[in-house]
Amino acid sequence: MKAIRYDSPEADIGTHGGGGPRSGTGGETDGDRPELDGRDASAVFGGLFDAYAAPLYRYLARRVGPDHAHDLVSETFLTAFKQRQTYDPATAAVRSWLYGIATNLARRHVRQEVRGLRAASRADAGRTPYQPSHDGIVSDRVDAQALARQIAPAIADLSDGDRDVLFLTSWAQLTTVEVAEALDIPVGTVRSRLHRIRRQLRTHAATAHLTATPEAIHHD
């Protein structure tokens, strides 16, 4: 697997937020569900690394910081290669599977993640409240770079599972179906968690007198 500069223009792969091979109409391509246990497994994983290392790094860097993220990207692909025979293309797209592995690994750093959220909240104190844009883009997802900082304490108080769902939808930009595949839980569970998260964050936003409400959790 060749190295990739996560901050290079080539790192912004794909148009579906998390990167990777996607079709022009938003549907899946054959590359979304490859066979991983064949004789060409090394070559296949090389392609997966090229496609997904950068978006996985950006997702993990937001959760655990850039230093840990580099290690976790490598560990994600190492774990995936070791567990390649457990991957079932009929069950999940490979993108969802990789994000699931990365999320499980990131949970080891949950304390750092929570501390980071609280630190972000303190650093953001006194700034101008987040204002949603007028083009409607934020109407269907949490703005992770602004709104999330202001509601960081509420995010830190979420359960591990709820926080995983929130960040996979808002930062990795997975659909509810992809989140269900990544976390190996029913789609209905993802949707119920999103409903609960919206309610909790909305309550916090109202209490904090923010001008934006977290209606905008990405969904399919």
Q: Layout of helices and strands, plus pairs?
A:
Layout lengths: L40 H24 L1 H17 L11 H13 L3 H15 L22 H4 L1 H5 L3 H11 L5 H8 L3 H21 L13
Helix pairs in contact: 1-2, 1-3, 2-3, 3-8, 7-9, 8-9
Query: Hey, roughly how much beta strand do the residues contain?
Result: under 5%
Going by helix content, strand content and strand pairing, the class is mainly alpha
Distance between the termini: 32 Å
Largest beta-sheet characterization: none
Radius of gyration: 17 Å
User: What's the multimeric state?
Assistant: single chain
Measured as a percent range, the helix fraction is: 40-55%
Low-pLDDT segments, ≥5 res = 1-29, 128-145, 210-216
Average of per-residue pLDDT values = 74
Order of helices and strands: HHHHHHHHH
Q: Tell me the overall shape.
A: globular
Beta-strand segment tally: 0
Please report the number of helical segments: 9
Care to describe what's here?
- With 220 residues, the protein is mainly alpha-helical.
- The chain contains nine helices and no strands.
- The longest helix has 24 residues, at 41-64.
- It is globular, with a radius of gyration of 17 Å.
- The two termini are 32 Å apart.
- Mean pLDDT is 74; it is low at 1-29, 128-145 and 210-216.
